[in-house]
Amino acid sequence: MSPWTFFFEHRGEILEATLSHLTLVVIAMVIATAIGVPLGMLIVQRAALRNIALGVASVFQTIPSLALFGFLIPVPFIGGIGRRTAIVALVLYALLPILRNTYVGLTGIDPAVLQAAEAMGMTEAQILFRVRFPLALAFILAGIRTATVITIGVATIAAAIGAGGLGTFIFRGVAMVSDAVILAGAIPAALLAILADICLGWLERRLEVV
Amino acid sequence: MNAKAGALAESTIEFRRVTYSVSRTSPQTLVADISLAISSGETLVLLGRSGSGKTTLLKLINRLLLPTDGQVWVQGRATADWDPIRLRRSIGYVIQEAGLFPHFTVAQNVGLVPALEKWDTSRTAARVAELLTLVGLDPGEFSTRRPHELSGGQRQRVGVARALAADPPILLMDEPFGALDPITRTELQREFSTLARRLGKTIVFVTHDLREALLLASRIVLLQTGRIVSSALPQEFLRINHPEVQAFAASLDSLPGARA
């Protein structure tokens, strides 16, 4: 069977898997951003917490994704089979690029600008929210973009623990030794990644301060 | 008011046996045992080579640094007793790279302290226009520009306008014209010299350029390795018999045509 025939015959199912994949990614990214950005802001001033946070986030990145999904299954409350476990794993994966870019973006600001802000009598909070954060925004978004692209890829593996998404086709295709079935999962996943990269890249350039 | 406080009224800024070390335990002392009184309306130039401690003295005035020993008095109160935010908002500060906020327009940069002080918008806008005109920039043309759309000289003009925004009685300037090309630098020095006289503010100006010091100062204080070498009127400065003064004087001679 040619891939095109397969795509056409299963278009409804593919679309459904794509939407479920996208939902998985969006939920994971919203959570990862909600944790990563504030945490990145917090560790600007706290060296001890900084080392722990960046260290832990780096460790999660080094665990092979399939293994991480596996490790989470027996964990109470967040573990088990299904979407919830998958989202937890995806969040852990996405955290490092967001956390790191937030921290580096907030600290990599021209020292003359920060000194001027301090000398003009801005409070710590005003410097963080009115100077550091707007200037770091494009860089933070670059971290979110990297994390999104990674998450779209890693989310295909979530099918292994019953979370659904485009990985379902890939695993089924591997089992059936059918390129057409594998591609039915792989092509939409790749297109999603490219699309996310383009959209977030565009937003990033819009927010860039020259 | 006791006698001591009465005597203070004369000087806006006073260093009382001030020493600043990077840390109490470290032997690295940036300025040592400085005593210096700066009168209201004076343009005091702190002259010295790199590492002589002049920028440190400046930062001690607006409490970017606190003395390790001794006290710095600003407007009748030791900096340690000032709320740092209040103190800094009453002191204008201009630095070499201008340090303009790249994400703000020129008008937002100049209007920052008024905005922090919660002035209403129309009062801030009027003040911004007034200041841009004062520093020689047409408000209509420049208000909406971003710092990256300005030349180095224009950026420094905005830096000066920003420092003056809330009409602070004291202005600190750390080599404000140091990074400019020689022609623009001379232009700004001349204009600023006129402006300084008109404003009547207490100005502490840091430079390593003797020519600039002679042009702007009402008094020159020469620093060497964290200590005051001499304090003199500009017209007397070159006659001082001290090797460091002579070294600076020699730097004048080495520039052909530098003596206007």
Please characterize this protein's 3D structure.
The complex is a heterodimer of chains A (210) and B (260). Chain A has 210 residues and is mostly helical. Chain A has a single domain, classed as MetI-like fold (Orthogonal Bundle), CATH 1.10.3720. Chain A has 9 helices and no strands. In chain A, helix 4 crosses helix 5. The longest helix of chain A is centred in the first third of the chain and has 32 residues. Chain A is elongated, with a radius of gyration of 20 Å. Chain A starts with a helix and ends with a helix. The model of chain A has no long low-confidence stretch (mean pLDDT 93). With 260 residues, chain B is an alpha/beta fold. Chain B has a domain of 68 residues. In chain B, the strands form 2 sheets. A 6-stranded mixed sheet of chain B has the order 6-7-8-3-9-10, with helices on both faces. Chain B has a 4-stranded antiparallel sheet with strand order 2-1-4-5, covered by helices on one side. In chain B, strand 9 and strand 10 form a beta hairpin. The radius of gyration of chain B is 19 Å and the shape is globular. At the A-B interface, helix 6 and helix 7 of A face helix 3, strand 6 and helix 5 of B.
Summarize the structure.
The complex is a heterodimer of chains A (210) and B (260). Chain A has nine helices and no strands.
Give descriptors for this structure:
heterodimer, A: 210 residues, mainly alpha, MetI-like fold, 9 helices, B: 260 residues, alpha/beta, six-stranded mixed β-sheet, four-stranded antiparallel β-sheet, 10 strands, 39% helix, disordered N terminus
